[in-house]
Amino acid sequence: MTSIEHSGGTGAQLDELNGFQNPGFGEHKPRITDSDPAAERTAERQIAAWFILSMIGTVWFIVAYFLFPVGETLTQVRLHNTAIGLGAAAALFGIGIGIVLWAKNLITDVEVVEDRHDIAGSEEDQAIALEIIDQAKNESGIARRSLLRNTLIAAVAIAPLPAILVFRDLGPLPGDALFKTLWGPGVRLCKDIGMIPSAEELHPIKASEVTIGSAFHVIPENLVQEDPHAADAFHGLDEKAKAAVLLMRIDPRELNTDPEREDWGVDGIVAYSKICTHVGCPVALYEHQTHHLLCPCHQSTFDVTNHCKVIFGPAKRPLPQLPIEVDDEGYLVAKSDFTEPVGPTFWEINTRETSA
């Protein structure tokens, strides 16, 4: 239905408005579905088919989520994303195309003129509004077209299920999950060169490789075992994410080191968790001139020269520091795990409340 609004007026006022002649309505051309019951039924079945396709897409999303797990290779990740992406596309486009076809082929398309009023609605206006709603219900046929109505309701009802399903992928559940990572005494710091490295690709970092002003994305050496067939050959992306670290070297004279952390670094080399303490985004931007770490999600900024204390943004606590030292071969190794939980502060609060 096409609606033309104006501010009121009759007769000559409608014939001419602001100097423009009212062209009036063009000739109404009925659609084939308006005159042919068989075409109308065919259009109804086609629209219902789109709604059914939407439901199939939603079900496929859920099935594919479990049928194609993320896995440990880039190919598996791509297959997982493609499979659930096809399901999501079918679910959303099915509903959208079905509604568009319903409007174009079955809803009444007669043009009308509606007066626009500048005053608040009276009881009479409210009654008119209800009448319009009832008219729209009759014109759309939603009351009498049970096939379209029921398939649309079913498609819309199950469409949110994939969103509920993937909530689990937001990260570890509250509890003690973020209190322990793979770091521990003697674990070497290795360059993070990819999402899922092999044992051969791990490159332990020597203190001599870290120059002033440089920064490395670091993972623990024990993330990947030498035997690729071992049950724990790869600890998983969750463990990698929790243990992700940024390694930097600063002129020791610029560091304001707390006395209890004097031996947590090596000649200006310091390591901090990459997980922002706001909502867990990766802190991956290092400004070597100011020695600031920036979270790209909500612009929380941390000062490396002062144990990564928050100097801007919504984060409420500093990034946890990883104590490091040098082993006999000159490689950087962890002295222990983090002494506080990594990640969002609310995880820490929830856990402490539970423990209390």
Description:
Keywords: 2Fe-2S, Cell membrane, Disulfide bond, Electron transport, Iron, Iron-sulfur, Membrane, Metal-binding, Oxidoreductase, Respiratory chain, Transmembrane, Transmembrane helix, Transport. It comes from Brevibacterium salitolerans. Belongs to the Rieske iron-sulfur protein family. This is Cytochrome bc1 complex Rieske iron-sulfur subunit. The chain has 356 residues and is an alpha+beta fold. The chain folds into two domains: 3-170, no CATH class; 189-355, Rieske [2Fe-2S] iron-sulphur domain (Rieske Iron-sulfur Protein), CATH 2.102.10. The chain is 35% helix and 14% strand. It has nine helices and 14 strands. The protein is elongated, with a radius of gyration of 32 Å. The model is unreliable at 1-8, 227-233 and 350-356 (pLDDT under 50).
